[in-house]
Design a protein that fits this description.
Blueprint: E1 5-6, H1 18-31, H2 41-60, E2 71-74, H3 77-88, E3 94-98, H4 103-115, E4 119-123, H5 133-139, E5 144-150, H6 162-172, E6 175-179, E7 198-202, E8 214-218, H7 256-271, H8 275-294, E9 299-301, E10 313-318, H9 323-334, E11 336-337, E12 339-341, H10 346-352, E13 360-364, H11 371-400
Parallel strand pairs: 1-11, 3-4, 3-5, 5-6, 6-7
Antiparallel strand pairs: 2-8, 7-8, 9-10, 10-13, 12-13
């Protein structure tokens, strides 16, 4: 069987670097015990790996290095976003977010609107896929508690002006949270320079980690209310969950395999020259893919006229075809893996007007993709578009009989 051409890295990066696989196994075999629960050597070693990763990721995200304990690990970005949204918003609070968001933001907010007395405003994006910071500024009221924005869209790939939005929030005294699921590990992030109060990330995408781990990086003096409780391995006789960080946001045994994967992912990115170099390589392939699609009759691209302030993700459709059918043809006939549908971000598709055709076909490039992969994708889409035009002509001929 021909090699699978994997262009679904926005869902999860694959494959992972060999270094990641090897270190995950090594750590779990060498010291795969419960960190922070006991005082024997292997437990201390596991705890040191966990602590060192907090420090390293705090630096990586441009957080406050004086408080690395505010880098808290969760199951994934969805888990992190639920913790921060439910822990910050209450009755009569107002939240501002955008039409670019993933359901991991939309659904928690909608539940609080329906059940918790919260109000919410969704800001649309412009024709190029960007949110205007002034529109967020206009939406802020005396009851606005939180602004939460997707840094990089998992559908159209646009990167939002986070620094400008953050400056507005800081001026207005409103908390600013950013979902960096698509950008963490793909492009530089600096919480302090970007005026970000809370950052939510996942480990299994461009950070090159495993599934099952993500986290929050929380600015000093910002506190999120606890919405869970359980074991921490510290002060077990205390009858309530601890309020100090990281325990405030962490519950139960940490995912040490996931921790090991993120540590190795950091090492791998450093060896590759850092996120800037990786991003440059991915965007060169994205430009090649876009140029190819633009030369195919019947292919529709969205918010991709200019790839400045973009990540290596784009969504297309082929005139006259359902997105799902295109995805099946790419898979079965060309051995190319993409993602079709609404991509867990229905408001993007609604604003683009493609909900009725069940969304689009998403191509997302990772660091292990090559020019040959891009050429194959262009060839596949070219042939499918030709079939679509042929079917359209056949229908017209049949109608005119």
């Amino acid at each position: 069987m021909d090699e699978l051409i994997y262009l679904d890295n926005a869902a999860t990066s694959w494959p992972k670097p060999d270094k990641v696989y090897e270190y995950m196994v090594d750590v779990y075999k060498r010291c795969g015990v419960n960190p922070g629960r006991s005082g024997f050597d292997k437990a201390i070693e596991a705890g040191n790996i966990l602590h060192d990763l907090r420090q390293r990721l705090t630096v990586f995200f441009g957080g406050d290095v004086s408080v690395p304990e505010r880098l808290c690990f969760t199951y994934n970005a969805t888990d992190a976003l639920n913790l921060l949204i439910q822990g910050l918003l209450g009755n009569e609070d107002h939240a501002i977010t955008t039409n670019l968001e993933h359901n991991s933001v939309i659904r928690p907010i909608n539940h609080l609107v329906r059940d918790g007395g919260v109000t919410a405003t969704y800001i649309p994006f412009d024709g190029q896929g960007f949110v205007d910071p002034d529109e967020i500024k206009k939406a802020i009221t005396s009851k606005t508690k939180l602004v939460i924005v997707n840094h990089g869209s998992n559908v159209i790939g646009t990167v939002q002006p986070i620094s400008e939005i953050g400056a507005i929030c800081r001026e207005k005294g409103v908390l600013f949270a950013v979902d960096v699921s698509q950008t963490a590990g793909m492009m530089p992030i600096d919480m302090i320079k970007m005026n970000v109060d809370i950052l939510a990330f996942t480990g299994h995408k461009s950070l090159m980690g495993s599934t099952g781990i993500g986290g929050l990086c929380i600015r000093k003096d910002v506190d999120i209310k606890q919405t869970r409780s359980g074991g921490t391995g510290v002060r077990s006789a205390y009858p309530y969950h601890l309020e100090n960080y990281p325990y405030r946001m962490e519950f139960g045994t940490p995912n040490m395999v996931g921790v090991a994967s993120l540590w190795a992912g950091q090492e791998w990115m450093t060896e590759r020259g850092g996120v800037e170099k990786i991003h440059e390589q991915e965007m060169a392939l994205t430009q090649k893919l876009l140029d190819g699609f633009n030369n195919i009759e019947g292919v529709i691209t969205y918010c991709s006229n200019d790839l400045e302030n973009h990540i290596a993700t784009m969504t297309i459709n082929i005139d006259g075809m359902e997105a799902g059918d295109v995805g099946i043809m790419l898979d079965v006939d060309f051995n190319i893996a993409t993602r079709t549908g609404l991509h867990c971000a229905p408001l993007v598709h609604k604003q683009l007007g493609i909900v009725e055709i069940h969304g689009g076909v998403r191509f997302s490039i990772g660091p292990f993709n090559t020019e040959a992969h891009i050429d194959a994708a262009i060839t596949g889409v070219t042939e499918i578009a030709e079939r679509a035009r042929g079917m359209k002509k056949a229908r017209l001929h049949s109608t005119n009989k």
